[in-house]
Design brief:
Chain A: InterPro entries: ABC_transp_permease (IPR001851). Chain A: Keywords: Cell membrane, Membrane, Transmembrane, Transmembrane helix. Chain A: One of its GO terms (cellular component) is plasma membrane. The complex is a heterodimer of chains A (378) and B (313). Chain A is mostly helical and 378 residues long. Chain A is built from 14 helices and two strands, in the order βαααααααααααααβα. A two-stranded antiparallel ribbon of chain A has the order 1-2. Chain A starts with a strand and ends with a helix. Chain B is mostly helical and 313 residues long. In chain B, α2 packs parallel to α4, α3 runs antiparallel to α4 and α6 packs across α7. The chains are: A mainly alpha (378), B mainly alpha (313). Chains A and B meet through β1, α6, α11 and α13 of A and α3, α4, α10 and α12 of B.
Chain lengths: 378, 313
């Protein structure tokens, strides 16, 4: 029989071992799914690695995908710490892209490049933040389930994009905006054909800043307390309302920034497919990183490699991209299952194996209670 | 009312009942799952799994009912993953449900790639109930449907009776309200949660399979298009009561049918805005329903989403 004893502290080796085992098991589960479809998993994984890291160019393309993942997952690390489950990064990303693109498409053409780009990034960030503030307000005022709300807002955001693209923003009935002027293109940092852009530095800066917020500021401490016990947080005088709103605005703003940065630097045009499913991948990245923003950077690159490789296997081997979702979710399943080992000490026991006369090991609280009873009896 | 308007109304409402049934089955399942204290946000993924394996079963056997059963079975297996992680291993239910949705989406688009746009030749056919279907207006809307729609009606009554009038229902609710007390009374907490999570999964699968085996008899990636999430929201709207689930599901079925009807009629309303309508309506409904639940203190199982650990206080 299995018994679980709550741990006070998770040993560091488990914190490392569990995610690594999760990734390996997730890849194994992905292989099983592939075998059922008579696809050779070794060839697929080989092609994914080659498609992601095979050359300097493919690696830079991996980083292109990593940029939005980093920006979004880092923000999610902050909100998930207080158990505000914003799964609306996708919608915030889209709204950010729309808001920033508005300026690129309809703004004054004569504006200087640095000023226009700055305004676009600010507007995109504000758009994402606005889209995140809605579920946050609903949560703190009326306790409306943020998971459902953010998810619905993802769909609503997609249709808003659709509305503009098939409406006045599209060209000749195609859901494709006119190309961004040079002034509205975020600079790329490597010679072509690489599309890697300065958004990478936004992401790295965001990761460091969020890390500092979580580790070194009062606000970061408050988000942590709030996540562990809301009632305790209220008693401790933490302003729950303010904390939730600020954290949601930060995570939504970063998602919005990711949206406009990717659109302006990589696509250079607003279109229906702005690869916004990165919003869901970012959730996996944040969770896999144990909600540590610096670790999330590395995990984002790994998941970006999986996505970049996934596009390659679809083109080269005609293996459907859906396998990437299977692998990602399998990794997440294993990670969630693995939390039992990080939160609890798992003990294998046989039923009724306690020798007579000895105190059964039934966890700390109970033994304290037993001690007290013994003292009372004495 | 002129006759043509009447007949249009009847066909729209009959369509609403069909669309409503797609939502009703997962909503009913989730009502029971959540009553037992398990939050399963993976309905969208489970519906997709049901839809795809339902389609596959119907394609391979030529019998849409066999397809439906296969879809239910596949979704039930997937729901077992959720139960294992959330009940046995006490994992985070929100994130596990989300993982389940990503899993279902990925799995079905991976296996479904070869099947995209292929059509089923035989689909589930309507069977009018003798007598009842002759009732003017109501008959053609409610009683000239297929067996799955009727199964939905029966399940509503059955689950309501089970939940509020039987010992099984009392135990089920006790597990969701106060697992420790239920455990002390000798109710099998783990078994109950597993059972209703798996039943909920099978019903979500049935909802998905009903799409492919009857309404849209072909396969498309992501064919459920967010209906699983609407079902999750409808559970709050229903205040965890099967009868309200019926009302909510048919109401949303009507919105869906109206939206399709307006698009088909080529009205001047923008199609993006029309497609947004069900999600916007759900958005409004979840807010209103949450407020009502707050004021009236009904429904929400107290230990929803909280794993049960016997040895902890």
């Amino acid at each position: 029989m299995l018994r679980f004893e709550k741990r006070d502290k998770t040993p560091i080796q488990l914190r490392v071992l569990v995610p690594i085992c999760s990734v390996l098991l997730g890849l194994l589960m992905g292989s099983v799914v592939m075998l059922f479809a008579h696809v050779n998993p070794l060839r697929v994984y080989g092609a994914i690695v080659k498609g992601a890291f095979g050359s300097a160019y493919t690696f830079s393309e991996t980083l292109v995908i990593a940029v939005p993942l980093i920006l979004m997952s880092v923000g999610l690390c902050l909100v998930y710490r207080m158990k505000f489950f914003n799964i609306g990064a996708k919608g915030q990303y889209i709204i950010g892209a729309i808001c920033g693109s508005y300026l690129a498409l309809f703004g004054p053409a004569t504006m200087s490049r640095p000023l226009l780009l700055t305004l676009m990034m600010v507007l995109g960030t504000l758009g994402g933040a606005l889209w995140a503030i809605i579920p946050a307000l609903l949560k703190v005022y009326w306790n409306v389930n943020e998971v459902i709300v953010t998810l619905l807002l993802n769909y609503i955001a997609s249709y808003i994009l659709w509305f503009f693209m098939y409406g006045t923003w599209g060209t000749r009935g195609f859901p494709l905006s006119k190309n961004f002027a040079l002034n509205a293109q975020l600079p790329r940092i490597l010679p072509p054909p690489s599309r890697l852009h300065i958004g990478l530095f936004f992401g790295l800066a965001a990761a460091v800043i969020i890390w500092i917020i979580i580790r070194k500021t009062r606000f970061g401490y408050e988000t942590r307390v709030l996540g562990e016990n809301e009632r305790a947080a209220r008693y401790a005088g933490i302003n729950v309302f303010k904390t939730v709103i600020i954290a949601a605005v930060i995570s939504g703003g970063l998602a919005g920034l990711a949206g406009i940065a990717h659109t302006s630097a990589v696509l250079r045009v607003l279109q229906l497919e702005i690869n916004s499913d990165y919003g869901y991948t970012a959730i996996i990245a944040a969770w896999l990183a144990g909600l540590d923003p610096l670790v999330a950077v590395g995990i984002s690159v790994l998941l970006a490699a999986l996505e970049a490789g996934g596009y390659q296997i679809q083109i080269v081997m005609r293996v459907p991209f859906g396998i990437v979702g299977v692998i990602e979710s399998s990794i997440l399943f294993c990670l969630l299952a693995g939390e039992i080992v990080t939160h609890y000490r798992v003990i294998l026991t046989r039923r009724l194996s306690t020798p007579p006369g000895s105190t059964p090991r039934i966890g700390k609280k109970c033994s304290v209670a037993l001690d007290e009873r013994a003292r009372g009896g004495a | 009312m002129n006759p043509t308007f009447g007949s249009i109304l009847i066909s729209v409402l009959a369509g609403a009942v069909q669309s409503g049934t797609i939502l009703l089955l997962p909503t009913l399942g989730e009502v029971l799952t959540e009553r037992s204290g398990v939050l399963n946000l993976g309905l969208e993924g489970l519906m997709l799994i049901g839809a795809f394996f339902g389609f596959l079963g119907a394609m391979k056997t030529g019998n849409p009912y066999v397809g439906l059963l296969l879809g239910m079975a596949a979704a039930a297996v997937a729901a077992t993953i959720h139960a294992f992680i959330c009940v046995t291993l006490r994992g985070n239910q929100t994130v596990t449900g989300l993982a389940l949705t990503i899993f279902g989406t990925g799995l079905t688009s991976f296996y479904g790639d070869n099947w995209v746009s292929q059509r089923l030749t035989t689909v589930i056919q309507p069977m009018a109930i003798p007598g009842l279907s002759r009732i003017p207006f109501v008959g053609p809307i409610l009683f000239s449907q297929d067996l799955i729609v009727y199964a939905g009606y029966i399940l509503v009554a059955l689950f309501w009776f089970l939940l509020f009038k039987t010992k099984v229902g009392v135990n089920l609710r006790a597990v969701g309200e106060n697992a420790k007390a239920a455990d002390a009374m000798g109710v099998n907490v783990v078994g109950t949660r597993y059972f209703w999570t798996i039943v909920g999964g099978a019903l979500a699968g049935a909802g998905g399979a009903y799409i492919t085996c009857c309404i849209h008899p072909y396969w498309l990636n992501g064919i459920t298009s967010g209906m699983g999430w609407i079902a999750v929201a409808l559970v709050v709207f229903a205040m965890w009561n099967p009868f309200n689930a019926l009302v909510g599901a048919f109401l949303f079925g009507s919105i869906e049918a109206l939206q399709l009807q307006l698009q088909a009629a080529g009205t001047y309303i923008n199609s993006a805005l029309l497609s947004m309508l069900p999600y916007l309506a759900t958005f409004v409904v979840i807010i209103v329903a949450t407020l009502i639940v707050r004021v009236r203190h009904v429904g929400t199982p107290k230990e929803l989403g909280i794993p049960y650990a016997r040895e902890e206080k």
